[in-house]
Amino acid sequence: MNLHVLPAGPIRTNAYLLTAPERGEAVLIDAPAGVWLDVEPILQKEKCRLTELWITHGHWDHTQGAAEIVRQTGAKVRAHSDDRPLLETPKVQEAFMGTRLDVEPVGVDRWVGQGERFESLGQPVEVRHVPGHCAGNVLYFLPRAQAAFVGDALFAGSVGRTDLPGGSFETLEHSIRQQIYTLPEETAVYPGHGADTTVGAEMATNPYVSG
């Protein structure tokens, strides 16, 4: 499995494209604006078809390109139902962002939940619910690849903001301790913004939530 990190959109939100050329399949994690322009040539080069889009949470910067991805590829969408209003009626975010947002609604084919397990690209996948930044924030953990895609719950040396509707630092801290810091310390953490880190590094040095 190959991992492509694709920052895109107005605030450089990370999308992650996972490709399995031997299977001819690929999965995209989050869809910031314009990311299809980066995704398409990789799919063509590696001769892969995008089968699924996994959304970590419903905030606009992670979903602005989702409708286009679905139109272009027919990919099935996974997300957590606590973010259903953000995904199906994204205009609700304009009030708390204080600006007009060009975000199309996106339909979800599979609502995922805490502890759900499934297989994709020949890899086992575990879903963990990590609210606090956003009610429906989830992480997707691929144990064989030692990788967790955590949305905006945890960053290298920081944590997600909790001042938006549905945010709570107390909830986020609990989520990080119970759902992220319980992963193996060598697990690579791929956040919604910025550089990747590891569970062990954040447990040892994160100034907001220590291990």
UniProtKB/TrEMBL annotation:
Alphabetically ordered keywords of this record? Hydrolase, Metal-binding, Zinc
Query: Signal peptide location in the record?
Result: none
Check the record and name the InterPro entries matching this protein: MBL_Glyoxalase_II, Metallo-B-lactamas, RibonucZ/Hydroxyglut_hydro
The Metallo-beta-lactamase domain, residue ranges = 12-193
One molecular function GO term is: metal ion binding
Question: Which co-factors does it depend on?
Answer: Zn(2+)
- Give the superkingdom in one word: Bacteria
PANTHER family for this protein: HYDROXYACYLGLUTATHIONE HYDROLASE GLOC
Q: What is the protein's given name?
A: Beta-lactamase domain protein
Q: Which organism is it from?
A: Opitutus terrae (strain DSM 11246 / JCM 15787 / PB90-1)
